[in-house]
Structure formats: structure tokens, C-alpha cells
Design goal:
With about 200 residues, this protein is mostly beta strands. Helices cover about 0% and strands about 50% of the residues.
């Protein structure tokens, strides 16, 4: 199964909006089944979108911004799928997520600071790394699995950097994280780990 993660710019709002609870601070759990546009309120900061898709169909989730008309999907994959994606602050507020699937799904918007502290996992995930000194900015990233692997750093202010891993399949690579990295977004289809 091929999995892609790409980053958003804009979208055409072709479906009616599914009225669901907004507000980043409340961290509402949005639930549905099949195609929909989930109402995310009006988000003006960098956040995390936690997701779950059950079943076995294809899944495409694309951001909806208040002013932009075209966007690149956050994720294109097959279910079942659980994890989280980083959504960087945009020039216009994030107002929704267009979902294309036949499966059951949940979405939840969380503050970036709520990312779990971790150095390993097995799902696409946004994590907080332990605080690093300058001499600790190098890490070895290991992934065992199939499909695309994308890793990029995120600063404490919620600004993403260039990917430090962009490969597929099994990966073992020494990476240097930019100064100020506090979070990491990992998109991988198998067990992954950061080590010193």
C-alpha cells in the first residue's frame, strides 16, 4: 500500500459543510462516516490534527482554508489508519477538513504543545523531542516498513523546516536537526525510532 503525505496550500469547497463543533481550545472530537467536510471553526495557529479511519477503503483528507481555493491533501492512504499530522499556520484561517472515504472516521484538533514526548512509534505522528543541547542536535532515525517516510522538524513557534528524511522503505539515517527544533512530524508506515 502506498501512502503519501503532502502539505496544504488551499482547496475548492465543493461539498456542504458538516456542522460539527469548532474551537481549538476545547479539542472537540469530530466523528463521521463517509465523505464530508468537517467544520474546524476558524484556526489561526499551528495545530495538530489527530485522526482515525477504520475499515479498508482509501482515505484522502484535504484542508479547507477560508480564502484559498486549492489545497494539497494532508494525507492520501488506505484504512485502517491512525495518527496525527502537523498543520502549519496559514495566511488564511483553517476552517475545515474535506474527507473522502467510505469508512468511519474521527478527527480532533489539538494544540501543538499537546504533542506527546516520544522517541519512537509505529504510526504517523507529531511528537515532542526531549530538550536538546547544540551537541545533541544529531540523531539517528530508523524506520522498518514499506511506503514513503517523511520526517521534518518543527520549531517551538510552530514553523516547519525542510524534511530531514524523505525516502521510502527501510531507512537508517543520521540527521541533524535545525537549532530550535522542539517537535518532529514523522510520516511512516512501520516502526520508527530516534536515537542518539
Amino acid at each position: 500500500m502506498r501512502t503519501r503525505l503532502v502539505f496544504a496550500s488551499a482547496i475548492s469547497l465543493a461539498l456542504g459543510v458538516l456542522a460539527l463543533a469548532p474551537a481549538v481550545s476545547a479539542d472537540p472530537l469530530l466523528e463521521g462516516s463517509g465523505n464530508a467536510v468537517a467544520d474546524l471553526g476558524s484556526i489561526k495557529e499551528s495545530v495538530i490534527i489527530d485522526f482515525t479511519f477504520t475499515g479498508s477503503s482509501s482515505v484522502v483528507v484535504t484542508p479547507v482554508f477560508s480564502k484559498d481555493k486549492r489545497a494539497t491533501p494532508w494525507l492520501e492512504s488506505g484504512a485502517p489508519l491512525t495518527g496525527s499530522v502537523f498543520v502549519e499556520k496559514h495566511s488564511s484561517p483553517l476552517v475545515g477538513a474535506k474527507i473522502r472515504t467510505t469508512d468511519q472516521w474521527t478527527l480532533q484538533v489539538s494544540a501543538l504543545g499537546s504533542a506527546p514526548k516520544a522517541t519512537s512509534g509505529s504510526i504517523p505522528q507529531v511528537i515532542q523531542l526531549p530538550k536538546m543541547t547544540r551537541s545533541e542536535s544529531s540523531r539517528t532515525f530508523t524506520h522498518r516498513g514499506r511506503g514513503e517516510v517523511v520526517v521534518f522538524p518543527i520549531s517551538a513557534k510552530g514553523v516547519s523546516g525542510f524534511s530531514v528524511v524523505n525516502s521510502s522503505g527501510n531507512v537508517k539515517k543520521k540527521i541533524t536537526l535545525p537549532r530550535g527544533t522542539k517537535f518532529i512530524s514523522v510520516w511512516a508506515n512501520g516502526p520508527w525510532k530516534f536515537s542518539k
